[in-house]
Amino acid sequence: MPTFFYEGSVIPDAIPLTLEYRPMFTRRETSNSPDAEFSVTVLAGRVRIGVTVEHFSQQVVYDLFVPAMDAVNALIGMAGFAVAIPYTAEIERVYFPDHTVKQYTLGDRSLAQMHEFELADLEQLADLAITDLKLSLLISDTLMTLGKPHYSPIACGRVTDGIARLVAPDLKGSARWEEVRRCLKVDEAFLKSLTDVSKGSRHADREEVIAEINQETAHRLWKLVGRFLRFRIDGALDPLTTEVLVGSAKYSQT
């Protein structure tokens, strides 16, 4: 059966991690991925995850990426706990069974299409974040919809709550959310689709959120953050050119 490898680094690299324990395990087929046998090696700050499957394809590489990261994070997370160092892993490339190599990284260009900003706008965006720690942390949480498996629902709720506090810091409860809807031209269902999906995860209910909801809410979140940043830069949104963001109960996790 073919075997391919995810390979990357463990940070911080100032204290390179080497682990004698090299776990091997089998993960049974799910609705999103096939049966697979995993082996994990961490040596001198490098991580290598071998994956053996019955049939190889690039889709399998995509489907098994999160399970591979789960295994690595479980291993180095316990190592980090043992020595009180926050080790994290980054996958950088994939070695295919035919020995070809492909660079690999987390990213989703479709999320960038949810807002109007580009790198050419970095000066005005960075000036906002450099002078406002709360806004900077909000962007960090937004990026965690990409950077950490299973964190997307939590990020959606935290970022939405954070936007509300930044838009209306002196208001509370329904009055705060009413001000968010007014300032950012967004309806209640849109906001609830982001806050409701995070309720279980934020209270340590680790029930998996289905992929369709994760994808849709991430797109909505990036759209909301882009609109919030435009509001912060301009002071107000143009009522003539800004369409109301409308939500749907379909994407509320129950």
Model description:
It is a single chain. With 254 residues, the chain is α+β, with helices and mostly antiparallel strands. Helices cover 46% and strands 15% of the residues. The protein has a six-stranded antiparallel sheet, covered by helices on one side. A hairpin with a 5-residue loop joins strand 5 (88-95) and strand 6 (101-103). Helix 5 runs antiparallel to helix 6. The longest helix has 24 residues, at 211-234. The chain is elongated.
Provide a short characterization of the protein structure:
This protein is α+β, with helices and mostly antiparallel strands and 254 residues long. Helix content is 46%, strand content 15%. The chain has helices at 58-63, 65-83, 109-112, 122-130, 133-147, 152-167, 173-184, 188-196, 199-202, 211-234, and strands at residues 3-11, 24-27, 36-43, 46-52, 88-95, 101-103.
Helical content class: 40-55%
Described by the principal axes of the CA atoms, the overall outline is elongated
SS-based class:
alpha+beta
Rg (C-alpha, Å): 21 Å
**Which strand order spans the largest sheet, edge to edge or round the barrel?**
2-3-4-1-5-6
Distance between the termini: 40 Å
Percent range for β-strand residues: 15-25%
Which SSEs are present, and which pair or pack?
Layout lengths: L2 E9 L12 E4 L8 E8 L2 E7 L5 H6 L1 H19 L4 E8 L5 E3 L5 H4 L9 H9 L2 H15 L4 H16 L5 H12 L3 H9 L2 H4 L8 H24 L20
Antiparallel strand pairs: 1-4, 1-5, 2-3, 3-4, 5-6
Helix pairs in contact: 5-6, 6-7, 6-8, 6-10
